[in-house]
Amino acid sequence: MAAKGIPDLRTLLGSRRGGASRRDARPHRGPPEVRHTGRGSNADDAVRNTDQDAAGSRVSCVDLGYLHDPYAKLFALEPATRRLPLLNRGTYVRTSAIDLLIDRFMMAAPETAKQIISLGAGTDTRYFRLCDKYPSAKLVYHEIDFPTNTAAKLAAIQRHAQLHSKLRTDSPQDPASLGPGATTYHSATYNVHALDLRSLAHTIADATPQTLPNLDPSIPTLILSEMCLVYLQASTVSSIISRFVNDFLPTPTPVSLVLYEPILPNDAFGRVMTSNLSSRNIYLPTLSAYPELGDQRARLKQYGLADGAKAADNEWIWREWIPEEEKERVAGLEFLDEMEELDLLLKHYCVAWGWRDDGQGVFSEAWRDIRDAGG
Asked: Is 120 annotated as a binding residue?
């Protein structure tokens, strides 16, 4: 790969082959493996299939020591395979950034009940990790995804005592005894909703807002979209967010939205990225609607999150959010000499976070010292 070349994302995003560890310092130089999914013929299938790709990336990072996640392998359906060092670093930065925002939310007024709604949660392990990290927290956690994905998740929870032991035993539904193919689970602390998010978009015929069991309309709530809303049309996304911030969580309830999405589709790297994804029948409408960090901040304000709207790309997050000691630890995990390519990759993904406090200062206080790329 030429130092100033554009990485071929058909191999970067699809390769299952990793690089050499720092211990033997022998970088892999063979031809990268090109991975073809071949698992779905329509756009929804392609989107659903990205979840196991993400699960494999988390397992790769856990195996190499980037992340601590004892639950990642319990949800991965495919054999663990090592990702390229560039991709491992990207997954590490992505996870660390979102963890920081959520940790600050959890630590602010720890005695206060809080709620998290994870859109397109898939195999994400965050609820189980938060149970370990904040065992006494008053947390209501919701996950929303396609029924096929929620069924797979609940099946994994049923299989592993390490997972279902984290759920409340006083729930009407015992997760260990759910029937085969169960797609939903509801309790006072953890809820899995089998739902196509597009069904939440406002329509003329939909006069009565749909309800989500156990969603509390009155407690501070963080909504998380980690590569989820990016697959929908911008107008549909606006309608879905309006449903949450106006109907499910009306003022004066403090509410925030954390987004993880790609940016910069119009430069050479971005064009390769979008071309690669379209070859897999994956399209990202919000990428063209909100191509830069300023557009991401503006959309958050348009959603009614008027008390704060910030955004930072992953390259900024790596430089400014990750402590130097941690950078040294991560650098020692794998041999990585493609630093220009890494910077390019990191600059094309971002975290955007916005909030409405309604005078209560919940999110303003939690995130007051987290700087974005605007200063």
From this structure: yes
